[in-house]
């Protein structure tokens, strides 16, 4: 199995422990980015995963590339440039104070990518799947065009395509997102989104999808997925619902619309070590289970269990094996293994 | 708005992570002290906040002073001496084992402060508010006299005064506290205390104020506040009730008696990052909201939300802005902000 | 009071914070081992505690020895060898992912211990109690014989004996454990075990001992203990039941069968700082309370409170005093002590 | 004494210990910038020092501002903007491998400063000295114009002006530097530079100023200073010469041309803890000694001793007192002081 | 260019800073091993470098593999086993106390490698060079046979071979080394060794090769190399001489015998950050320069400059680029680059 | 061999790396004190070493006691009190800036020791040697009397006595030192001092003992020792001379006057990791070599080599074995041992 993803890899700088940025005398350096996270997660599952991207030549760009190599991602198609490395600062939250992301990614080597940097027919030769998130076109420049190039090549080569909506209000408005994403959606087989973004960015009117008490309104979520699937001819729509209790605890649930049926997963309530990247872990789990020929119910269960585990891993990358995801599905909570 | 506070600033030494003092190979250095914490918190809210204190000349005293400057507190009226810096060691707790404070503050430069060190009429000129906690007179020496000097100057200049009872059994007995505080109370406009200390130190008989299950007995707390207000002619009495579940979780509630009415805030149940300084954050929130002309209900809500957030900040200082307090009041729990 | 224990002391290497071994750039070094943990815990209670063991001569072996000395354990009877130091790597868990122990203890200086290394009559002279866990004979070589030597000496000298079953599937099969332990059990006064191991290793058929919802089936647990006590003529059987909610929270309960009666302790639900060594803390608490002449109910209460506190201490060693255990029994949860 | 400086404050991110950026899992955060460093150093000497600058509103910008406040710099005239905070990454060097600075400062809030941000007549009222380095105009945009505004105000108010040439090849070419700086130089009283930059940027032909063996050619350096002083009517020219032995050791010497005479200081050969900011420490020392009315020889001696000490301080800021500089001049090397 | 190496990769555990193992509360984890170090260094030079090895399946084995991938080494031919990961503990030295290596590598997955684990004709297809050090056969078991297999395949495929003598007294005696290495030497093109090992292991009598004062006796070193080249028909012999001043400083020199001529490099005297791996850096530099068609003088200069830089890099791996080595050769010592 | 020492054990708090106290966000905690350092050093040499002292009951006092136990010192005779633990802050120096000790030891449990705390005849029974430094009587209170008690007991029991002058200007004046020490000196067999203190505190006029260039004036140092030996009937006088090059390098030499002859050791020039405690290491080395029956030349050589190694150990304690001292004497500088 070979999966190709396309997106930016950033350096993430976050204070140690629970410190605020105001207090921090040192910052931990991780690397992450929506599509890179998907690629790393797939590589841990044993999939041949490629990140297509663009990074600066200098030591920080090389460090970012090395982080991908370390976890087994194929980096042959990462172009190199002279611009800066995209950064983001992550301040951990606490009770009553949300975690906070401060983007410092403008003018990065990735944002300056050009269509000529990527020969998609060569890159996608032999690929089984292509994954993209809404963040990549949101970065503007020629990136929407490059996404279109990639999707056209997927179409030509018969590569299946997933898109994670991944809406970020700090990057673009809902209207722009809708305008830019609309021409891309016909090329997409599997749409992944959280419930709120699916409703708002793609303008689906289904009413309040959350019941009082945080429970999901299953009927409305099903309607949402079905509407989307029909409108854009998606073969499947995966929706995740997140319920934040505090910066260190929350719950997640998911539904997969496939074969004209809604398949709901169980809900996980979790202590959170690191919230960032769990949506990408969900996407990777879904792609892995789909490529592995699992049933729709198994797919959504695997994807959500992967997302659950991602909350317990420091950094953006979901460094768990497929066996560990399966163990959570099979055994539930266990004492120390020794 | 200009607020003046008077108290000691200590260096706090605590093990990293969850280590016991017995295990610690290194100690984190923070700075804190009841009134200093109030000043820092007010400075984060944009108030012009002054700490009047006394610190040694040497490098540690300078480091303490610099910690105040860093967070925007006016240090012009900090006298300097040749004695030592007050210290305290803080051992974090765990389930079934309370956090523990080990004071090492005797003979500090502050404990040796003299009346001539402080020209209160000059210091308080232009001030809107003066804040003191019971810890300052508890340190003995000439400090009770200096407190009396300050309060007399407040009276002369029309500066409003708040006193946080802040009873510490390790510093003085209840009887001594009562004897020393009694002559100061007539100068106080707003009394701040937790329910237990208010009852015990000021000898108010209202019966058990906590219901089984940890709920507050609203009627008795109201009686307590009203009795205090009437006895000492306070314009307002703010009472906080703390319910400790374990060293890492607990809940807080509060009531403000003002305008002859009891205003109860909601209760917050929190994961605790750092318990120390949350009472001072409450005092700072109350002063800020009062000076800002908020209603009694808004005052107690703002003060308790500030105290809630303080549990999520490492160190004694409550490094949150007024906007962050307001966001908790307005939005409740939120996912990562990006 | 003098208590002698016999077992291996290993270096434990674990990542900082919540990192996986895959991510770790540094490892914290603690020392631990079932019987060593018991000895250290007893020394904190003021008992004269001796660990009999075998350690390499080199710097790491000396560091291990020093860790025992630091916490007041008598190390006069630790033999020294030329082999390696046993290690284990501990990866912290998270929600849905159990903590994991990776043993690297084969061929250690302890595994190569010889009968001539230990003069048990000399070692045990003046001892009140001897404690052993199932891990020591599980390490094979001549260790089962050495255990038999020690128990024979206890018998000769009238030293009371406790055995903690401490079954580790990674070290031996249930059948081997049963075969090797059976000849040792007649020398044992007090058996300590968790419920599952007691049933499975010693082949007691009592049915499911856990009710749905995680509650203990008291009648069956009592039957289990009574059956064991009768079969092997134990004067007491202490059973602990652990209920894992996640890698960072869980609950524990215990029962002591003594004087032909079952004494159940309360259940503690805890946030977990460090799970390893809590069973050893239970054993140490039981030995301490028994030697101190406490009643059966007091013994099981003290032992379980000690085990509860052990979950809040970093490392294998339960660095709490008897007074701290008693305070938990007397006061329950408290706010910061200052 | 009041000194005003104008320049950018950046966050500096550097690996711990001797790690390369390629290896770094965490970065230490310091703050620095040529003129900010001068201001901090002067504040440690007891001078009233002001940094005029522009910083973003967000948490990182506030952290930068707090770093200045912590060390006593007046920040009243720091404008705030919406752009990013300038960063630089500093990789420590080793034998045969120079330390390396990787700038990431484009598009910062400071680079977007506008003339209207600064009311120079108000800012400079009551100032005794204004200090600028060549880095500020090198950042382009309207910064050269703002520098011209400041210098014009200095001229109007009779404030003395020092300029540190501080040429950075990564920021601008020598030709551009010459073109932009030329109109500013007539406003400058004291020029500070290292010998190489003075020769190359200002196109002074004096031949090789370093003898084989690293010794300075005193006659040529004197000629260089004299030529500069005459060409631009500087009242004094201070030239520093640096001799790099390795990334962790080197030597420095200096000469001050004043009163038509060359005053040479001794040479210091030093182990280097942190090389960055030592030139700024020299400038601060020179300004301090000049304002204090010291003789030319004392000025250059004080400035170079300050620069020497700066090599032993972590971070850009030279956190030493005037007394410590004087002690080096008076006592030389000393054993532990206790 | 493609270079294949064969050897063990170990986890190295060393205290932070200057601590002794006796004091260490935490250990830094690096990965290293003679041939792995060569492969990593070559990969930094842009060479396609392969490490053939055997690692355990578990998390530590995977972490070791990931360390190679991170730095661009091809790991396709790393076999996986069930045994343990080889470890070594490195205690830093100080003045008068040498750094100390404590091996804990017995019974590792690599030591249990079997001939069937490696298909050398497939592995070496397309390779330009094969590198081995004496450590691999020193580990015993079937490793000498596997080395013979590899060398036979090199012979069959025309792949050039270098052997670094790398004698370790802790692993085998000189006699055993001589006996085991002798049948391998006819397959070797380039011998690399330090002067002492070359003399002692291969029993060459040339007299004292070091002059008083630490200078090398050029004539005798030349005789040594020539004798070796003639005896074993090496095309080249590279000898490095190390002069230890203290644990933190020393000097190195080297000579390459090639084309019947001795080519001596300059001597570097260095502050040492990390001494381990510098010999491997020398080997990698020599291979790189030889494959690049450089002259004998250039080869030895490049190799020694690479070794010099390795002393300034934390960990075993020489993380410097070919351009950085060349810069040292071209520019010598430089100030901060910015 | 059994050696008893008497003195205070303090907690030492020092910044990490090279930070100033002004910058420190965390402090490393070591334990040390002149006589405690001697005891620990002797215990590493295999001597049965006892520290007689007084420590607080609380967690910090226990941590101090544990530090002694960890390194094998007999702590049976450490009395416990309710006062505070003595502290000292150590700021590392750099080029041109000396390391600095900030004492915070007033009113410690040791300073409040009483004569009844120590039963010297019991404590010294079976001891071969008693060691004291001038710091203990310098702390005042009843400590000079307790010292006199101890020395009288030594006299009664025939225990040999060494006194390290260890003059600290921060603790007492030279006149007071002279007055307090004079009655103790007749009980002393071996006087240890550095040259300067010996001259100044004991008022010996011998002229300048250091030649220009830092060389020792052997004749005058010999005269000094001989004069002291004769005046006080010392059996031996050991004088150490320290030459500080910078905070991180220096040289030491020593002379032992014994058998009416001066025995000079070689001089060591060292890179310094941690300067504190090297004089105590010298004393320990001298005691060890004397008790071991070594010749005067061997004694001073061993003592100075021990002092040399102490400069390379973090913390006050000289954690080296006698074999390591001997290896420095026998082998000089060595490369990595593996």
Q: Identify low-pLDDT runs of chain A.
A: none
> CATH superfamily name of chain A?
Ribokinase
Order of helices and strands of chain A: EEEHEHEEEHEHHEHEHHEEEEHHH
Any idea what the radius of gyration of chain A is? Answer: 19 Å
CATH class call of chain A? Alpha Beta
What is the CATH topology classification name of chain A?
UDP-N-acetylmuramoyl-L-alanine:D-glutamate ligase
What's the architecture of chain A in CATH terms? 3-Layer(aba) Sandwich
Q: Give the largest interface pair and sizes.
A: A-D, 27 and 27 residues
The helix/strand class of chain A is alpha/beta
Notes on the structure:
6 copies of one chain form a homohexamer. Chain A has one domain (2-331): Ribokinase (UDP-N-acetylmuramoyl-L-alanine:D-glutamate ligase). The first copy, chain A, is built from 11 helices and 14 strands. The first copy, chain A, has helices at 34-44, 59-70, 120-124, 135-138, 143-157, 174-181, 195-201, 218-232, 278-291, 296-310, 322-331; strands at 2-6, 10-15, 26-32, 48-56, 78-81, 87-91, 100-104, 129-133, 160-164, 190-194, 236-246, 249-258, 261-264, 268-271. Chains B and D meet through α2 of B and α2 of D. β3 of chain B pairs antiparallel with β3 of chain F.
